[in-house]
Structures are given as C-alpha cells and as structure tokens.
Amino acid sequence: MDSMIIGSKIILRDKRLADAQDDYTWQTDPELAQLDAMPPLATTFSQYLSDYVSELRYSPQTRRRFAIETLDGKHIGNCTYYSISEAKGEAELGIMIGNRNCWDKGYGADAVATLLSYIFRRTDLKRIYLKTIDSNPRAQKCFQKCGFTPYGHLVRDGFSFVLMEIHRKQWERWQWKRNDTNSIKED
Ligand SMILES: CC(C)(COP(=O)(O)OP(=O)(O)OC[C@H]1O[C@@H](n2cnc3c(N)ncnc32)[C@H](O)[C@@H]1OP(=O)(O)O)[C@@H](O)C(=O)NCCC(=O)NCCS
Predict the structure, then answer these.
(1) I need a labelling partner for 37 at 20 to 30 A (CA). Which of 50, 78, 129, 136 fits?
(2) What is the 125 CA–ligand 1 centroid distance (Å)?
(3) How many CB atoms sit inside 10 A of residue 138's CB?
(4) Angle, helices 168-178/107-122, rounded to nearest 10 degrees
(5) Which tens digit of pLDDT belongs to each residue from 136-173?
(6) Are 33 and 42 in contact (CB under 8 A)?
(7) Which DSSP category does 99 fall into?
(8) Edge to edge, what strands does the sheet with 159-167 contain?
(9) How far is the CA of 186 from the centre of ligand 1 (A)?
(10) Contact, 157 vs 37, CB < 8 A?
(11) Hey, which of 29, 103, 114, 138 would you mutate to test ligand 1's pocket, going by the most ligand atoms within 8 Å of its Cβ?
C-alpha cells in the first residue's frame, strides 16, 4: 500500500530505494548522529544498500516509516512511529531533517503535525512519546509547537534526554486551534 499524506509544507510518503543515497549521507554524518544520540554509521554504501533493500521488503506491524518531501518533491528527511503497542495504545515518534538548508523553516513541525494527524485519525493509539537530547533546543521547540509537553528526563549511554509526550485529548484540543486540514491518499 503506497501512502501519501499531504501537510501544509511537506508530504509524507512511503520509503523508496531511491532514498538510500540521501539516507546513507545523513546516517554517516557525525553532527546528525550526535543530535540523534547515535554513533555515525560506519558501513560501506554497498552493504548499506543491501540491508536497505531487505528493510524495504520487511514491514513490521510495530513500525511505520515515511520519507519527508517538500511540496515540490525534494527528499529532505524521514519520520517514523515505532515501538507501536496496541495493548498500551502508544508509540514512539522519531524525525530527522537531514538537509541542513531546510532547518528552522517549519518543515519539521509540519512533518510532526502531519504525522500526528495521521496517527490519531487512522489508528486507535492514544499517546505518542519521544525523546530528544537536552542540548537540542531546536528539536524541543519544534515538538512544543506541535503540542508535545515534557514529562521527564532520562540519562542513557552518556546522553541526557528530555522526554516529551502528547495524548489524543491534548492533540484534539491542539489541532482544533490549528484548524487541521491534512489530506491522506492511499492506494
Ligand atoms: C529537529 C528538527 C526535526 C526540527 O525541524 P525544523 O524544521 O528545523 O524545525 P522547525 O522550523 O519546525 O522549528 C524549529 C524551531 O526552533 C527554533 N530554534 C532553532 N534553534 C534554536 C535554538 N538554538 N534555541 C531555541 N530555539 C531554536 C526555530 O526558530 C523554530 O522556532 P520558530 O518556528 O518559533 O521560529 C530538525 O531540525 C532536524 O531534524 N535536525 C537535525 C537532526 C536532529 O536534531 N535530530 C534530533 C531530532 S529528536
């Protein structure tokens, strides 16, 4: 099933093999890796590509990945919801805008808002949570703009994280104020 979710500034679409080069560039970038509290990827592109093909074929029930494109079709990043637990009614959200020229232009907030809209309209999940490193005020501001609120701190692997969450009820109030008009196409 190919999905396309249209926001105000971005489109979320299913991942494709053609995304592999951008994704490899971003995942091997030390600054992006640090912001994601991960070591930079240290594999060759050919190995990466072979794993990428397998990942595209495999779609677990516990994860949904999307590419983020500008409205004119430029691939600028990715966002995902994962660790989906139907029993708990929750999932974790992750995002990365890899193209630095696209930071601070509202693409991240629109991608998160568009994904939240998709999740809360199309699934029964009731809570979305995330973590971001303390020293990333851009990310925290982006998530606050989308209605997330801090609920704790975590120190893991030498990184200190802010934990943030949004519940369906909070999202309903938030998107009513925002006058949400995203559209979803699936075929
Ligand atoms: C974090 C990220 C998703 C945010 O997306 P984005 O498109 O850059 O964010 P937005 O433009 O929607 O919002 C960023 C906000 O932070 C503000 N901001 C930027 N730097 C800031 C700083 N040092 N202190 C405070 N606010 C800051 C911007 O002004 C903007 O707020 P505004 O709209 O009120 O002006 C994106 O920048 C990104 O992926 N960065 C690289 C990887 C990364 O940080 N990964 C961790 C994600 S958890």
Answers:
(1) 50
(2) 26
(3) 13
(4) 120
(5) 999 999 999 999 999 999 999 999 999 999 999 999 99
(6) no
(7) -
(8) 149-156, 159-167, 127-133, 90-97, 75-85, 63-70, 10-13, 3-6, 183-186
(9) 29
(10) yes
(11) 138
Q: Which atom of ligand 1 is nearest to the CA of 103?
A: 8
Q: What are phi and psi of 104, to 5 degrees?
A: 60, 25
pTM score, whole prediction: 0.95
Closest-lying ligand 1 atom to the alpha carbon of residue 136 = 44
Cα 5 to chain centroid, rounded: 13
- Read off the tokens for 3: 């999905």
Residues with CB under 6 A from ligand 1: 32, 35-36, 77, 95-97, 103-109, 132, 136-139, 141-142
- Tens digit of each residue's pLDDT (9 = 90 or more) over 88-117: 999 999 999 999 999 999 999 999 999 999
**Residue 78 is encoded by which pair of tokens?**
């990715």
How far apart are alpha carbons 33 and 149 in whole angstroms?
24
Q: Which of 86, 70, 79 is nearest to 143 (CA)?
A: 79
CA gap 38, 105 in Å, rounded = 25
